[in-house]
Amino acid sequence: MQTAYENGTGPARPPGSTWRTTPRPPLVRQRQGKVIAGVAAGLAAHLGIPVVAVRVALVLTSIPFGAGLAVYVFLWATMRDVGSVDPAAVTPPSATTPATAGPAGPTGPTGATGASSTPPAATTTRHPIDLAALRTWLRSGNQAVLITLLGVAALAVAGALWLGSAGLDVHVEVILPVVAIVIGAIFFWSQLDDTDTLGARRPVRWIWLVVGLGLTILGLVGLLVRGTNLTELWQVAGAVLAALVGVAVLSAPWILRLWSNLRVEQAARIRATERADIAAHLHDSVLQTLALIQRQSGDAAAVARLARAQERQLRSYLYDEGARAGTLGAALTAAMGEVEDLHGVPVQLVVTGDRPMDEHLDALVKAVREATWNAVRHASPPVSTYVEVGPVAVEAFVRDHGAGFDLDTVPDDRAGVRESIIGRMERHGGTARIRRRADGTEVELRLPVSQPHEPEHPSPSAATAPDPPVPSSATPPSGTTSGSTPDPQTQEQAS
Amino acid sequence: MTDPRTIRIVIVDDHHMFRTGVRAELTSLAATPRAGGFTLEIAGEAGAVESAVQVITQEQPDVVLLDVHLPGGDGHGGADVIRACAAVQSRAAVPVRFLALSVSDAAEDVIAVIRAGARGYVTKTINAEELLTAIGRVADGDAVFSPRLAGFVLDAFGAAAGEVAEIDEELDRLSAREREVMRLIARGYQYKEVAKELFISVKTVETHVSSVLRKLQLSSRHELTAWAMGRRLL
Fold first, then answer.
1. pTM for the whole structure
2. For chain B, which domains are there?
């Protein structure tokens, strides 16, 4: 929706044509670039006018009679949140957050400065009160509510001054309770909007509810008592409380039922979305491949290749290998996949350990790929590739079952082995060895690596020292969290 | 040839097509004389946990080819079958051996079924001849490690990072020799090739592999489970 709006205001397009060419985005509250509840941003996107204009209009119309404020509250109550319309639209905000940091700017700085009265002290961590937590509480909470409160206060003062200057009798005992009620309602309602800027759910802050409820009750009592008679105060307060409790008791079952219905609906929607995702993926991948296989069913090699490629893709989808992007394991999987696709010979790849890619590892991957490529072309399957990521070196073994070849008999013009494997490894400080065996050839590559990037590979002595928790040597970067919890039992046995 | 015994097997898999395929492949291959010195008799098939337990108890096979994912039971598939049949013995009065056969390479599947008591884990892409060899090995009480399972073991025991047990009995780490054997298996070596490479007998290789299997089943090394939870096999 945001993008549609941005397209609409693009300089290349005459403003008149945007109304026809781009469909108008739905009227929903935006999460990106919102200041209070995203009403202005949503309105601007819907109408195709700059958000600043909407905000200025709302503020200007609020000043005399509060009409803008009323409109704002009305829209807030009636406009749906952006996520509740199209579940697929929930992802873009978080995905494009860095890109939209500019538009979201007004919110960030305001919140930061609004809450920055405490930060200097927050750096002293040993303060009895957790200032950092207080700061994050203030900040995540709601610069929006703070801004609204300031607005209400300013409005009240302005209204009182205006009424006073108009010669009307200003009843402070009426205005103060009304302001209290409004502020309490804002506190209370602010918890309705239980998603933060990034679209993540945030927990309901009960303190806000309590403060809001308290202010509202105080305001109601103050309004009824009119500030004069103290003896009546307790009676009225009791009456107000009783009424509120009665309403709460009566409405509780309905609210609970609504809430649980909502939960059920939400769960169903999430399931449906997931199902749609999976169905889309299967359709794009598996069904297409099956159709291809049926058309080429005469060509056994093609069928095997298609099936193998599809299997690999499906595995990477199921086992979420995208999470390992940028690591040696992922690079090797991709390289072996290429070799398989090009030649239709399955390659058995086993990798133990993992580490992030760098240029030397890139050379290793290329050498492994070349060796495997040779194996599938000149030898017979099974072709096995084993890569072991150790603390001081990465070792790779590519094994085939062919007749093998003698390096000395390989003509010099064949750059494959000499240059792409041995030369490449040596340039990067590694070694390459080619062993001829009775039933095949094995290429052994070894690349020394610098000290581990993370303390996940213990030195051999670390395992015997009882003091520090044994770092999970077996846990690759992706699993550091699961492996970092020390197990006393294992410690004992290891030491 | 030397030992013309018969190995009776039960195939447990919820895919009927797969059972038929395995049966056809194995029977055609087991009929040829070079099939590893034993004949094969397929005693039964099952497609779910309950029926598998019933067939295994009734038929008392030597080896069960077991799919990891099966309907029924407590929801743990093959592991449930192994636990329910723990006391069942074959007609030769040795415990029924289980060989896990799965399309899944996920570590939690491997670890669950091995720790439940399976003596081997191979993927369904294995060719029929290798499968036959694996069946013979499991029937003898030895362990069958695919390259992937070996890689998993090296990773989970920290052996790839250089952790080696000082004494062989230590459950939480591999001995230097076991590590060598596992590395060669991960590199795609057959048992006899491993033996040749390390100048030991095939029987010794089998002993080492069985010992690793025992460690895999008994170790309390927390990485085994943490690893299995946090990561899948490549």
1. 0.56
2. 5-141 (3.40.50.2300), 149-230 (1.10.10.10)
